[in-house]
Design brief:
Helix 1 runs parallel beside helix 3 and helix 5 crosses helix 8. The protein is of the alpha+beta class. The chain has a 4-stranded mixed sheet, with helices on one face. It folds into 2 domains: about 80 residues, Glutaredoxin (3-Layer(aba) Sandwich), CATH 3.40.30.10; about 110 residues, Glutathione S-transferase Yfyf (Class Pi), Chain A, domain 2, CATH 1.20.1050. The chain contains 9 helices and 4 strands, in the order βαβαββααααααα. The chain is about 50% helix and about 10% strand.
Length: about 220
């Protein structure tokens, strides 16, 4: 069977999210670097695979899939023994609830602030007003997270799931601009510190995502 190919940019957030899940599950993969700075993701050859001209997508032995969370779910579903997607109906419902919370209550502000902070990290112009406004919104959302995490270890219960992994790489990004937003609430801090200490996240800290065939 051919090795899974991940088409993306080594420093891009969504590529990093997929690579983190691949690393979590010890799935060998080849990173195929997409030159987004020169618009490779908008070429006809690329949009034949990803019609919206976005990164990443995967080619798993001829099976093409795009959208980050869909890719992560697919990878986890191929490894049910990991428990990253619970199979018990109630546990699965709680997982889906947590995954929905991430999309609805975390990602909108975390991604907007995170993109600006990433630009700052690369020495580009950062709109600090956007960062400040979005972190203020996110801080209110994290009050809900604090309530949830005061009763359980992870966002979907006491077991680690894909819903937790969905929060990276934006969680470290929003914490990178000098804000204590991820550590000022005790249970959020506990959860966040555990999340960013996972080997799967730390694996690509230096130099970004890279082809990984051995773990």
């Amino acid at each position: 069977m051919a090795i899974l190919k991940l088409y993306g940019a080594s420093q891009a957030t969504c590529t990093r999210r997929v690579a983190t899940v691949l690393h979590e599950l010890k799935v060998p993969f080849e990173l195929v670097e997409v030159d987004i700075m020169n618009g490779e993701h908008k070429t006809a050859a690329y949009t034949q695979k990803q019609p919206f001209g976005q990164i990443p997508y995967i080619d798993d032995d001829g099976f093409i899939l795009y959208e980050t969370r869909a890719i992560c779910r697919y990878i986890a579903a191929k490894h049910p023994e990991s428990g990253l997607i619970p199979t018990d109906p109630k546990a699965n419902a709680l997982f889906e609830q947590a995954a929905s919370v991430e999309v609805s209550n975390w990602d909108p502000s975390a991604s907007k602030a995170g993109v600006e902070l990433m630009r700052k990290g690369f020495g580009m112009v950062c709109d600090q007003a956007v960062v400040d406004a979005q972190l203020e919104i996110l801080d209110k959302k994290l009050e809900g997270y604090e309530a949830i995490l005061s009763k359980q270890r992870y966002v979907a219960g006491d077991s680690f799931t894909l819903a937790d992994l969905f929060h990276i790489p934006y969680a470290p990004l929003v914490a990178s601009g000098g804000s204590d937003i991820m550590t000022r609430k005790p249970n959020v801090a506990r959860w966040y510190n555990e999340l960013v200490a996972r080997p799967s996240w730390l694996a690509y800290q230096d130099g970004g995502v890279k082809t990984t065939v051995a773990y």
